[in-house]
Specification:
Layout: E1 5-13, E2 17-28, E3 33-40, E4 46-48, E5 51-54, E6 58-64, E7 70-76, E8 82-90, E9 94-96, E10 100-113, E11 118-121, H1 123-131, H2 137-155, H3 162-166, H4 169-173
Parallel strand pairs: 1-10
Antiparallel strand pairs: 1-2, 2-3, 3-6, 4-5, 6-7, 7-8, 8-10, 9-10, 10-11
Length: 174
Amino acid sequence: MPLPYLVHIHYRRPPDREEVFVQRLVWDAPEVKITLAEDVPFDPPIRIKGQVVLEKGSAAVWFTFPGRWHDIGRFHRADGALTGIYANILTPPVIRPGGIWVTTDLFLDVWVDRRGHLSVLDEEQFREAVDRGWITPREEDMATRELGWIQEEHKAGRWPPSVVEEWTLERARA
């Protein structure tokens, strides 16, 4: 199927929620799949550390790494300005025929602001999910390991991977 085409990402949020995000697949390689979400409907805006990172009309370039326990998004405001890099810790996506992807949120998130400072988000939600049994002990272990790996790679200057810098919003739109 020629690019771009639409994928439907079934994003499960324990214990019982699921959202389906429809995005354009703009790059499809074995090691990374890149999608573009445009005109996101966030009203009120999403704020991290007091700063608006996504708002109505924003765009995000998403990087899905088959087999990895996280994905990465380049977040932009409605005017196109890059606000930072966001990562969801999640189960490796199951990629089905017909552009259907399925993954489960494991609550932990990572934010890298424009200065390169990394913050871990939603640790309280993660603890609650663990305590309530919404995620399995294996998922807890893998989420914790993935977070630690991201932190170490970031500290060493290897995360986010270079593909995230290479695929700007402008490139994804082209």
